[in-house]
Design a protein that fits this description.
By secondary structure, the chain is an alpha+beta fold. It has one domain: 3-Layer(aba) Sandwich (Glutaredoxin). Helices cover about 25% and strands about 25% of the residues. A hairpin with a 5-residue loop joins β8 and β9. The radius of gyration is 15 Å and the shape is globular. The protein starts with a strand and ends in a 5-residue tail after the last strand.
Length: about 180
């Protein structure tokens, strides 16, 4: 396992379109989330302990912010034949295991992850209503132990963005490297 941090990206960068299949049998693109006031794109996967540790937190945040127009979407770009947990069928199992309440998409070509400059799982991007990058960082200050969290950065960022602002202080997300095939 290679530990990486997310790249520092320029705030205001536009969201990049995608058209990817999801575990629910549908395909999703940016246009499918046009009604969302805020769009949270999380590059994630099944086997990564960093993702598994926060998956429930992502589900809770989607529940907490859905009435404020926030929509989460997970994208798995780790579909690598060397990792048996990273198949589309396993994605469906993990989706159900965590009672996931947002679409979980498969980026089999890894093109979307490359265009977004995703580095690790999880790699969290938050776009405002104009689909401009407004947050790119970690979920909170303790990925390992939710009960020890003191700063809920993603939650604070969502509150700020819903109100038309930004969270000034942003710390990179960290996790397992994306398993590139080439």
């Amino acid at each position: 396992m290679v530990l990486l941090e997310s790249l520092k990206l320029e705030m205001g960068t536009s969201a990049i379109d995608f058209n990817l299949p999801a575990t629910d049998g549908k395909n999703y693109s940016l246009a499918d989330f046009s009604d969302a006031k805020v769009l949270v794109v999380v590059f994630m996967c099944n086997h990564c302990p960093y993702v598994q540790a926060i998956w429930d937190r992502l589900v809770k945040l989607q529940d907490q912010f859905v009435d404020q127009g926030v929509q989460f979407v997970g994208i798995n770009s780790n579909l690598n034949p060397n990792y048996e947990e990273e198949t589309f069928e396993k994605m469906k199992e993990y989706f159900d295991r965590y009672n996931t309440n947002f679409p979980y998409l498969q980026d089999a070509s890894q093109d979307v992850a490359r265009e977004y400059k995703a580095q690790c799982t999880p790699d969290i991007y938050v776009f405002n209503a104009d689909r401009k990058l407004s947050y790119h960082g970690r979920i909170d200050d303790n990925w390992q132990d939710e009960s020890a969290v003191k700063k809920h950065e993603l939650s604070e960022a969502l509150e700020a963005i819903v109100d038309g602002g930004v969270l000034e202080e942003q710390y990179p997300s960290m996790g397992c490297s994306i398993k590139w095939r080439d």
